[in-house]
Design goal:
Layout lengths: L4 E5 L6 H12 L2 E4 L1 H13 L8 H7 L5 E7 L2 E6 L2 E2 L2 H4 L2 H11 L2 H13 L6 E5 L2 H5 L5 E6 L2 H9 L11 H17 L12 E4 L5 H13 L5
Parallel strand pairs: 1-6, 1-7, 2-6, 7-8
Antiparallel strand pairs: 3-4, 4-5
Helix pairs in contact: 1-10, 2-5, 8-9
The structure holds 2'-deoxycytidine-5'-monophosphate (DC).
2'-deoxycytidine-5'-monophosphate binds next to helix 2, helix 5 and helix 9.
Length: 227
Amino acid sequence: MPALKIAIDGPAASGKSTVARLVAERLGGFTVNTGDLYRAVSWAALERGLDPVRDAAGVVAMLAELDLAYRIAEPGRLRLHLNGRPVPQEAIRAAAVAAVVSHVARLPEVREWLRQRQRDCCALGTVVMEGRDIGTVILPDAPFKFFITASPMERARRRLAQPGEVAAGATVQSVAAEIAERDRIDSSRPVAPLRPADDAITINTDGLTPDEVADRVVGVIRGGPRP
Ligand code: DC
């Protein structure tokens, strides 16, 4: 099969990362989780003692010091590197990063800086790229676009089930509120807001297993590009 571009967008904790991984495995492609790029920039800012919520200029100035790139870690897997070192997943999934990443992701300079880095990944082979603006901005020419959603309570339950992603003492209600706030910021920002591309297929994953969602996605892809 020739190299394919598959765009998977959706809100936080909608299950899109799991689905993207399953789809990539079935198609023999790479997954690119673009949220990790925004998280890595946020983590780098916190490491430098910056406050990304108040100091947008500091974050933008810092970009010149960053070399952020995906490398093939092992056959079939990409690993994100920052200034030559692998980016630790536990660091970028920490609650401190989750608390500021929406603020970093709404900076146009950061989005612009990351745009080509995301597009460059397609040179590596079949890519299942997941994020918020993949179908609309990053890969508008992708022949397959999906928008994966789930209800806020379902998403809060999923997030709570992922160790290390929520602050100590978090409840379904507090996590649902945090997710809703992140959605609000992501959907209302002027630059690349979270929204389905006009030609995306929306899948609500409530009550579906990740495998069932992946079946639907792969079924569409195997059926060929839509007219
Ligand atoms: O998917 P995630 O929770 O790891 O995303 C982290 C943040 O980055 C979230 O606030 C949305 C933002 N993001 C974005 O604006 N555009 C993307 N393509 C991916 C993530």
